[in-house]
Amino acid sequence: MNEDLDIDDVESDDGAPRTKGAVTRDAIKAAARRAIAIDGFAGVKVADIMKTAGKSPGAFYLYFKSKEALLHDLLADFQDKLLVEVNAPHAPHEDIATHLMERLRAFWRIYREDWPIATAAFQMSMTDRQFARAWHNIRQQGIRGFAAVVRKAQSRGAMPGMDAELVASAMTSMIEYACYNWTARGGDFPDRVIDDQTATGVLSHLILKAMADER
Known about the structure:
By secondary structure, the protein is an all-alpha fold. The protein has helices at residues 20-43, 46-53, 67-86, 96-125, 129-154, 164-183, 196-212, and strands at residues 9-11, 17-19.
C-alpha cells in the first residue's frame, strides 16, 4: 500500500490516535509554511513543498486539490488560533489593560509564527474573490472582538462618543500592519530581528495610551 494512503493509527504527541494520512497532511502543511517563508507563495512549487516534506510530488494531490487549496487550509488554521487565543472574551471583572496586553502578546506570537501564511493570504485577497472573503472574515473576527473591549472601556469613561467599530478597525489595522512590517522580509526592517518584548511593548504602549485618552 502507498505509505501516503496508510490509514493505520499512529500516536500523536498528546497520546491521541491519528492516522498516518493525518500525519502526512500535517507534514505537508508544515513543509509549506517553511517553503512559503523562503520563496513566497507565488514562487513556491508543489515539488518544493513535497521535497521539504520528504514525500513524492504526486502525493500532494491525495490531500489538496491545488496549492491554493493548501493555503486556504493553512489560513483556516491561522484563523482558529486567533479565535481561541486572541478573541478570548473579556471577563466581567478582568482589568481591561491586562486583557488587551495578553491578547496582543498572543496575536504577535501567532503572527510571528504564521507570517508567511498571513502575507500570502493577504496578497491573494487582492486578486482572488475566495481569498478576499476569507481575509475579510478574519478581519471582521478581530474587529468584533476588539470592539467589545472598546465598548467595555467606554462604559468606564474612555473615548466618549467614538464609534467602537471604527476604533477597533483602526487599531487592529495598525497592529496587523505593524506585525507584518516587523516580521516579513519585505517589511521595514528586513535585517533586524525584533524580539517579543520590544514588539509587544511598543504596541501595548500605543494601544493603552489611545484607550486611556478621555478627551
